[in-house]
Amino acid sequence: MRIAVISDIHSNLEALRQVLIDIENSNIDTVVCLGDNIGYGPEPNKVVTLIQDHNIPSIMGNHELAVINQNYLSSFNPVARKSLQMTVELLSEKTVNFISRLKPSLTFNKYRFVHGFPPNSATTYLFQVSDDELQLTFEQMEERICFIGHTHKLKIIEYKNQFTTQRPLDKSLINLNMESRYIINVGSVGQPRDGNNNAKYIILDTLNYSIEVKFIPYDIHSVINKIIAAGLPVEHANRLL
User: Is residue 223 part of a domain?
Assistant: First the structure.
């Protein structure tokens, strides 16, 4: 089976469209989305509709959580909070209903999918987790691999023989070790923050037990113009460059 894992689309319709075109040409059996489909970008309803049209299972990101729990908004920095408050005003009733039904995680075939950190956190960033907490998580984790997003930065953490090693990911094909467990950050489709402005996603090949990291170009300036036209914070337009 070949599973495409996408995350952090952030209302960036152009990026999502190009990623889905690449997925259609990559012999993919199923797609999973790790949340944060909304926020920052100009077209949240169209992004959610496209996810629904493609029957892509999605989970709760921290931006979706803020829509259904207004108290959580206070945890965002002022610019992100303003952007999300404006995003909420753009959401259709259909989109809000979709968001309200999202689960904090998904599991199947010995793989876990969560936005922030296993087992079920939409809000914990990987960089907030201590080495001791990381080791304990691996020891308690029943799945071979947990895929996460949230930081917008590609990364792989391997746990074997009670030791963890971690490194950033680049565009590549990586063979995994059947004796190890992994936490893999799949990066961001709609707002990368790793110095490369292509849309990012990962393909898991369960037969060959490998992952492929994909970098997908899209029309960035079109999205920037839409963010500015919508009156959304320009900081999130500039981050796309």
Answer: no
226: in domain? no
**Residue 39, by phi and psi: left (phi above 0), alpha (psi -120 to 50) or beta?**
left
pLDDT at 42: 97
Q: Report the CATH number at residue 106.
A: 3.60.21.10
Strands 2-6 and 105-108: unpaired
pLDDT value for 108: 87
CB neighbours of residue 126 within 10 Å: 18
Answer whether residue 67 is part of any domain: yes
Question: Alpha-carbon distance 41 to 11, whole Å?
Answer: 4
Model confidence over 180-218: pLDDT tens digits?
999 999 999 999 999 899 999 999 999 999 999 999 999
- Please state the domain count of the chain: 1
Secondary structure of 86-143 as H, E, C letters: HHHHHCCHHHHHHHHCCECEEEECCEEEECCECCCECCCCHHHCCHHHHHHHHHHCCC
Task: Write the CB contacts of 159 (distance below 8 Å, at least 6 apart in sequence).
Answer: 135, 138, 180, 181, 182, 183
- Asked whether residue 224 is assigned to any structural domain, the reply reads no
pLDDT in tens, 14-51: 999 999 999 999 999 999 999 999 999 999 999 999 99
Q: What is the largest CA-CA distance in the chain?
A: 53
Domain extent at residue 64: 2-218+231-238
